[in-house]
Amino acid sequence: MIKTHVYSPAEPDTAALRATTRRWCAAYGAAAGRVIWFTPEPPQTAPATRVLLKTFNQDDTTSTADVIRELDTCPPSIQDTFVHLARQVPETGLGFLGRRWHERRVDGPILAAIDDGMVIGAIGPLAVMADRDGAQVLLPQYFGVAPSYRGHGHGRSLWRAAVAWGTEHGARYQVLQAATGGSSEALFCTEGLTTLGFTCAVAA
């Protein structure tokens, strides 16, 4: 895939950029192309992703519901249900995370929401690293809740547990993205995150 990133304060000429990207795809044998740009306001003409900033403080160490546990500490019978969750929410990347977890190739713990003896939501892996100024940043996670369990606070409990973990491990901030109109966007906006702008993308 060829991705054309546009850096400009003005609204891009997407028709011309898509045509150019298609020519590059043909020239270099790429199967697909995308045009990507950033805007401070929600776009009216293209799908978008909200870019958000979470800053951490000591108030973020509030304990969360007992149903949130580290996946590795759960009994095998519960761990085995993680794959069923991943199948229900393919858009979240939990399938990829599940494969990495089974291979023991994840960078940190995965937090799981447990109900009815199974994993019904998850967020992870949790890891921090220093940015170029030396501040600790919590890396983005895969995050999802089974459709039949949404609307009961499981996503909020998972998110707050991840924030508490980041605070306890010295994170100063996190930058993350959420599709506009989705449940994650609604959650993050009600949790007090700062919107930095919107990333837009269209197929070439």
Describe the structure.
The chain has helices spanning 14-28, 76-79, 82-88, 94-102, 154-168, 183-190; strands at 2-6, 33-39, 48-55, 68-70, 111-115, 118-124, 128-130, 136-138, 142-145, 173-179, 194-203. It is globular. Helix content is 28%, strand content 30%. It has 204 residues and is of the alpha+beta class. A 5-stranded mixed sheet has the order 1-2-11-3-10. Strands 4-5-6-9 form a 4-stranded antiparallel sheet. It has a two-stranded antiparallel ribbon with strand order 7-8. The chain has a domain at 57-171: Aminopeptidase (3-Layer(aba) Sandwich), CATH 3.40.630. It has 6 helices and 11 strands.
What is the structural class? alpha+beta
CATH topology of the domain at 57-171: Aminopeptidase
Q: Any idea what the radius of gyration is? A: 19 Å
What is the general shape? globular
